[in-house]
Amino acid sequence: MQLIMLGVGSSAGTPVVGCDCATCRSPDARNNRTRCSSAIVLPGGETILIDTGPDLRQQALREGLNRVDAVLYTHTHADHLHGIDDLRAFCQIQRRQIPLYGNHETMLHISNKFPYVIREPGSFWELPVLSINRVSEPFELFGAKITPIPVKHGNSDILGYRIGNFAYITDVSVIPESSLDLLQDLDVLMLDCLRFEPHPTHINLEQSLDYAGLIKARQTYLIHMTHELEFVEASQRLPPMVRLGYDGLRLGSS
């Protein structure tokens, strides 16, 4: 299995429009952060996206991504959902409906806001051709076990996901004890880390490190970062088993 970090940025991305801070002006490509999303490529070649942010087209072109077989949605905020129209290209390439997975609220929101994409395959591929699948329990996709991980994002109930020994937890303010139990014995954890200062709907660096210490993944990568976290400077604050993610980072076998 290979993991591709398509984007590790927060809702504004980095550089931020109109900002001239050191991170936004940095020549280090690891400080260029598109909106948060990842792709998992399974041994059979099937590709599962986690979220469809507004930078999906740019991310797919950059990474040579030309196949999407399913999408796991964490929640419906614009920076995680509003690239849904870019799934049209993959439907056109594959001539296949792409299934979407998420909790009841997420699937209902997509059905109501983007009703034109929920369609059965036919002869017309000029729109996305997608299906809705509500999940709350572990399920299987292309031979891989997918475990939804319930977490809190402020007052919202959203999902992270565990796929084998990899887990993805973004936009989180609290990980319940019952969900921590689902995150044991991980090889890789991708974990929200918005900024240095506390935030009402995201964990900050201190809280991210606390959760990383509780979960004890063999390697934790921080994601969904604002421009406050300059790559080199923030990396110097991290323990050996925690690293900053960056756009284009690939983990696992190719």
Q: In words, what does this structure look like?
A:
The chain has helices at 56-63, 78-81, 87-94, 104-113, 177-180, 205-215, 231-235; strands at residues 2-7, 37-41, 47-50, 70-72, 98-102, 130-134, 139-141, 144-153, 156-163, 166-169, 188-192, 219-223, 242-244, 250-252. It is of the alpha/beta class and 254 residues long. The protein has seven helices and 14 strands. 20% of the residues lie in helices and 27% in strands. It has one domain (2-244): Ribonuclease Z/Hydroxyacylglutathione hydrolase-like (Metallo-beta-lactamase, Chain A), CATH 3.60.15.10.
Give a brief rundown of this model.
The chain is of the alpha/beta class and 254 residues long.
CATH evolutionary superfamily? Ribonuclease Z/Hydroxyacylglutathione hydrolase-like
* CATH 2nd-level architecture: 4-Layer Sandwich
Number of domains: 1
Number of helices: 7
Alpha carbon gap, first and last residue: 8 Å
Topology:
Blueprint: E1 2-7, E2 37-41, E3 47-50, H1 56-63, E4 70-72, H2 78-81, H3 87-94, E5 98-102, H4 104-113, E6 130-134, E7 139-141, E8 144-153, E9 156-163, E10 166-169, H5 177-180, E11 188-192, H6 205-215, E12 219-223, H7 231-235, E13 242-244, E14 250-252
Parallel strand pairs: 3-4, 4-5, 5-6, 10-11, 11-12, 12-13
Antiparallel strand pairs: 1-2, 1-14, 2-3, 7-8, 8-9, 9-10
